Amino acid sequence: MTTTTLSRKKAPQTPTVIASHIDLTPPPEQIPGTVRYCLYARKSSEDDERQALSIDSQIKAMLELAKREGLEIAEVRRESHSAKASGARPIFKQLLGDIREGMFSGVLTWAADRLSRNAGDLGSVVDLMDQGHLIEIRTHGQRFTNNPNEKFLLMILCSQAKLENDNRGINTKRGMKTRAEMGHRPCIPALGYALEKRPEDKKNRVVPDPIRGAFVKQAFEKVAYQHTSGRQLHRWMQEVGFTTKLGRTITLSMIYRMLRNPFYTGKFEYPVGSGNWYKGDYEPLVPQHLFEEAGKVLDLAPKKAWGTKEFAYTRMMTCGGCGSGITAEEKHKKLKDGSIKTYIYYVCCDSKTHDCHEPSIREDVLLEQLLALIDTIDLDKVGMKKKLQEEVSRYERFSSGILGQSMGVKAPKVDVRTYAKYLLKDGKTEEKRELLGCLRNKLILKGGKVSLATESKE
User: Fold this and answer.
1) Whole-angstrom distance, CA of residue 207 vs CA of residue 189
2) 28-166 has which CATH code?
3) Are the C-beta atoms of 443 and 436 separated by less than 8 Å?
4) If we measure between CA atoms, which residue out of 392, 367, 116, 117 comes closest to residue 125?
């Protein structure tokens, strides 16, 4: 038997070039095959994520995974924010930007829904993978790369999280509507009621507050039968020590909302403005006829037409007596010749103490005091000089152009302080407001005199 031996020719080897003086090793972040991970942990305080691990637990679990598999974690970032809305998480938004800049090439997170529960953020993540910026996403049990099947699975998991959010919102609204039909208003009960927990009930029961309930009913009676005004009612509640459940003093606006709230009659509207009314399963504090009678008194009270006229110096001063703002009102006086003279008075709006006795000041008197005040203040110090110089320069350029072309006359120089007085006296309302805006909250009106806050403290 003849044995045939086949000899194979060796392929020619490429000569090795040694260049010891040149370092061809790329930096660690550019070595092919290496991934720099950012560990991202997120938890929302909302009810839909109560079952998710805490941020510390997520970080601990993912650090153990990284150590076990030899992953390089460059940075750990944590965030307490809901992922329902797109672009609403500042730390996650910064993370996407850093990945795009090449700072990271991988993300390590507890689960896919930690990254996104909305279509916008999910699209941003997938785009980074398509562009090659994001090489890998690792979770506690899965791995996602720029592979069609793995990206599809990632989108399914995040879309499932969005679907759960949407369904939970629908189910919550349905449950709240069912509670309303059962007589339970699905929100905090009105002031004058309390929540009571009974062993036989799964939910808290709404009952009249043993302390505040009587005062609420008495407030309705004062308005309906004694025609007590809102300010008088507010003063009475301060005298008797009536407070909210948190111990805070009740405000005037809260009193008016209380007097208009039909919840006290045993019925409520849900949602507010929908026209759907339900009968509550709690004891009414106020009879229907008493509620209607109080409403009639409130309707008969004179109402001011807010916002119908803009006054030049309102919202620019503070009352020196109580610290409230300054408002204005028009008063008309009929003269002997039959004409009507209109005066504008500035007075404390009395929003803090409701018992301020500071006198009012007429607008022409106030203007004289403001003009005198301009002579005494340092325009540089209050930040007015630069703004006024710009306006004066613009005026001079305009005047020089018009007068120079028509009459060949050079426009006269205008003093900055004189221009400020001109604006206060004859300028438009917007110009006066812009000028005094530099002194906002610094002007004090006390005893019929206006002064700067720094002067009033001396």
Assistant:
1) 9
2) 3.40.50.1390
3) yes
4) 116
Residue bearing tokens 């005893």:
447
Rounded distance between C-alpha atoms, residue 79 and residue 92, angstroms: 8
**What is the reported pTM?**
0.47
Instruction: Sketch the domain layout of the chain as residue ranges.
Output: 28-166, 206-300, 317-457
Query: pLDDT, tens digit, for every residue of 263-317?
Result: 999 998 888 888 889 898 889 999 999 999 999 988 886 665 555 567 888 878 8
Instruction: Give residue for tokens 């019925």.
Output: 267
For 206-229, b/e burial (b = at least 16 CB within 10 A) is: bebbeebbebbbebbebbbeeebe
Cis peptide before 284 (omega within 30 of 0): no
322: number of CA atoms within 13 Å, CB side? 16
Distance, in Å, from the CA atom of 155 to the CA atom of 125, rounded to the nearest integer, reads 10
Whether the CB-CB separation of 264 and 286 falls below 8 Å is answered with yes
CATH, domain range 206-300:
3.90.1750.20
Q: What is the 3-state secondary structure (H, E, C) of 37-79?
A: EEEEEECCCCHHHCCCCCHHHHHHHHHHHHHHHCCEEEEEEEE
Half-sphere exposure of 367 (CA within 13 A, CB side): 16
Cα–Cα dist 214/353, whole Å: 25
Segments of the chain scoring below 50 in pLDDT = 1-32, 47-49, 51, 455-458
CB 135 within 8 A of CB 118: no
CB count, 10 Å around CB of 433?
Answer: 18
Phi–psi pair at 145, nearest 5 degrees? -125, -175
Residue 442 to residue 453: CA distance in whole angstroms: 5
Instruction: In the chain, count H helices and then E strands.
Output: 14, 15
